Amino acid sequence: VETIRRTQNEIIARIFNAVESCGEETDIHVRRVGWISACIAEKLGWEKDKVETLKIAAVLHDVGKISIPDAVLRKPGALNRAEFAMGEEPAAIGSRLLGGSSDPIVRMAETIARYHHEHWNGTG
């Protein structure tokens, strides 16, 4: 079991490194999302193991960003329509990349990746 957990943690770290390569701002953002998610879960009274699962899973929410060209990710000015449309795809791509797992962390990460851009009322 410990070997499996170490392997899982390494794979998650490697995926995180791929997302991190999208830029320093992304690195800070995904770490912050993991930390804030865990803080909120604690305040809501979640069990410690669920809080830890969320903290790890939440950092993978932007894994789909690896599908966006660097020129678009790092563009200093406004995005054109085609570029803006690319920014809407990563949630679906991240969901597909993480989908189909039986592991609780990866399942939670898939759900977070899929829905993290939804409005509170679920309208997209």
Can you characterise this structure?
- The protein has seven helices and no strands.
- It has helices spanning 2-20, 24-43, 48-58, 70-73, 81-86, 90-98, 104-115.
- It is 65% helix and 0% strand.
- With 124 residues, it is mostly helical.
- The longest helix is centred in the N-terminal third of the chain and has 20 residues, at 24-43.
Short description:
The protein is 65% helix and 0% strand.
List the helices and strands and how they pair.
Blueprint: H1 2-20, H2 24-43, H3 48-58, H4 70-73, H5 81-86, H6 90-98, H7 104-115
Helix pairs in contact: 2-3, 3-7, 6-7
Q: Which labels suit this protein?
A:
globular; single chain; mainly alpha; 7 helices; 124 residues
What count of helical segments does DSSP give? 7
**What fraction, in percent, of the residue positions are helical?**
55-70%
Structural class: mainly alpha
Mean pLDDT: 84
User: What's the SSE pattern?
Assistant: HHHHHHH
Measured by DSSP, the beta-strand proportion falls in under 5%
- Counting copies of identical and different chains, the oligomeric state is single chain
What's the Cα radius of gyration? 15 Å
